[in-house]
Amino acid sequence: MDQVYDVTKFLDDHPGGDEVLLSATGKDATDDFEDVGHSSSARAMMDEFFVGEIDTATIPSKTTYTPPKQPHYNQDKTSEFIIKLLQFLVPLAILGVAVGIRFYTKSA
């Protein structure tokens, strides 16, 4: 509706509680107001809290955020070959140590 209302003075007296009004602050509350089905006396009270109208031409259009482009940064300085080699050699070394310990303790 492009109309602005200041209902600060009505917070304590609102039958639905102040939370209902506070949840609609800073946004178009037309749907919230209409969905409740207010009485004609409630609609008449709106004139008391009317502040003015919004010039819709001054409302900025929504823009989507696009992060700045950053150069690719490779945190991992180790080459993939070394990693694959270690993935093969470390289990082999553990197996070798286990077999060695088993062989040494069995012969003693």
Structure description:
InterPro entries: Cyt_B5-like_heme/steroid-bd (IPR001199), Cyt_B5-like_heme/steroid_sf (IPR036400), Cyt_B5_heme-BS (IPR018506), Cytochrome_b5 (IPR050668). Belongs to the cytochrome b5 family. It holds the Pfam family Cyt-b5. With 108 residues, the protein is mainly α. Helix content is 46%, strand content 6%. Strands 1-2 form a two-stranded antiparallel ribbon. The protein is elongated, with a radius of gyration of 35 Å. The model has no long low-confidence stretch (mean pLDDT 83).
Order of helix and strand elements from N to C terminus: EHHHEH
Helical proportion, percent range: 40-55%
Q: The biggest beta sheet, please?
A: 2 strands, antiparallel
Please report which band the strand proportion falls in: under 5%, 5-15%, 15-25%, 25-35%, 35-45% or over 45%. 5-15%
Cα radius of gyration in angstroms = 35 Å
Helix segment tally: 4
Decide which structural class fits the backbone.
mainly alpha
Span between N and C termini?
94 Å
- Basic shape: elongated
Structure summary, number of beta strands = 2
Mean pLDDT: 83
Oligomer: single chain
Strand order within the widest sheet? 1-2
Low-confidence stretches: none
